[in-house]
Specification:
The structure is a homodimer.
Chain A (H helix, E strand, L loop, with lengths): L2 E6 L3 E7 L2 H6 L7 E3 L2 H10 L4 E4 L2 H11 L4 E4 L6 H12 L2 E3 L11 E7 L5 E6 L13 H5 L1 E7 L8 H14 L3 E5 L3 H6 L1 H11 L2 E5 H8 L4 H9 L4 E5 L5 E5 L2 E5 L12 H13 L5 H16 L10 H10 L1
Chain lengths: 327, 327
Amino acid sequence: MTYDLLGIGNAIVDVLARCDDAFISAHGLNKGAMTLIDAARAEALYAAMPPAVEVSGGSAANTMAAFASLGGRGAFIGKVAEDQLGTVFRHDIRAAGIAFDTPAATGGAPTARCLILVTPDAQRTMNTFLGACVALSEADIDEATVGAAAVTYLEGYLFDPPAAQAAFRKAARVAHAAGRQVALTLSDPFCVARHRAAFRALVADEIDILFANEHEILSLYEVERFEEAVAAVRAETRIACLTRSEKGSVIVADGAAHAIAAEPTRVVDTTGAGDAYAAGFLAGLVRSRPLPECGVMASVAAAEAISHFGARPVAPLAQLVRDRLAV
Amino acid sequence: MTYDLLGIGNAIVDVLARCDDAFISAHGLNKGAMTLIDAARAEALYAAMPPAVEVSGGSAANTMAAFASLGGRGAFIGKVAEDQLGTVFRHDIRAAGIAFDTPAATGGAPTARCLILVTPDAQRTMNTFLGACVALSEADIDEATVGAAAVTYLEGYLFDPPAAQAAFRKAARVAHAAGRQVALTLSDPFCVARHRAAFRALVADEIDILFANEHEILSLYEVERFEEAVAAVRAETRIACLTRSEKGSVIVADGAAHAIAAEPTRVVDTTGAGDAYAAGFLAGLVRSRPLPECGVMASVAAAEAISHFGARPVAPLAQLVRDRLAV
């Protein structure tokens, strides 16, 4: 196989700034969540934002960057426009060592951006203008690439651009036809609520490995207790990784549930924690490591992500994992 | 007066990445210095660079952002293009609280960028594609703005774009005609070497407050010992601030020389240290603080700049200065 992991997701440049809670309330932002905004709202919010930093983002793309830092071979499919931010996105993911050949959209909306406000409690509040991401379609799902990847990883946020659900279904179909596995992250509780029926059907029909945090999995199954969600997901997927912030995570598989502790770290900015977690887990899985070890790798990657401003890894993750597993 | 400080400089977006010394040698970069590169070289070097972060930069613009963080009222003159990176630059400097109304260049080169490689020893190696900066001309020097600023601060790097020297001369003339002061930073020893005669004439004729590091001031006067440079500059400017990295700085004024210690800090990335130093010094000067106190403010701002990745302040500098002066 050419790739250990293929990520399919929104191709986004993050615009990150620090702000206080007063800014969040004054602008009616949905703290801690991802809210979709249109071009006019993006312009108005950007004008009001403090000085910012631009860094390539996108949930699955962040996962791929972290996966490469863990030593994995990866590819990414996502849609940028032919503009400066599109050039930035393409440069960064390729420079991270990830193959990225999806043609840029031309003549339409600009490259997507996510206006991210980080509050002093390290929480991130995300406001996404999807831009060129809405141009991603089935035609962009290259069958050879999907067939050449051990695992295809789908980003739940891609349920928002209208044509992307069809692209998802195609990717899952092609992957399974080639005997590969399909993973999905639910991304955000509001995203789950917007597309619950479609998510439920996809999980039941096509997903081998599911990533979700506590809020997302409760929302998916419309249950109130974590244990009920564990029971529901156990019946539908081979492996489910359920993250619980500082309480660590639970890996549900083969009739067992493995509790994994969070790694201690100084929390600076939670942007990208879930993305990094998925990268760490999958990096272990594709090397056939035991599930608890995959969980530790996931926790190490997540801890690195939250220890600095921005979503993509700053420290070499493979080294961090080696150091941690050697202890 | 409307403004305490007006900065005139290159309007640049920094593209910052970490690399090792092998990358610096492999690409023939001039470690620790600023090298001008053309569009083709910028593209080739960017393609080879690790994943990066985009942050508004430019020497005088960084100074203005730090000056605003110190509570000063400021304005900036510089040239961006009408593109996404130009929008980023304009947003960030305005969001920092600095007035910026220079019209964008249209139909020419894109917004300038500086490809900055930060090595593990915290040194930055800068490679600048001047882009739209070469379109800055005398016409952009708004006389009302210059007249409304207590100090006009000129960035030495502006000697590189051809039309900017005339803009410099105009700004100095207008400022002095209005009874204001003119400050200059020499920016870089290679920049001094490229334009030594013009710099010498400008310093002798027009500069009230000069900022230079040890390498730059030695290059300006073509002398070998720091003491000789001090003697030379003393005869030509009212105030000279000569920085010496971890050895602190020397402020030469009124027949005296004040030695200022560097503030202790963890050195992460030296990008913007000199820019922040100038902001701190001038913030004290425009409030008529004693020169040694201006020097401490300069050292506090410089220490903040080198304690994180990127040139512009992350922590509120006014608070840091208050804390330091209260001790």
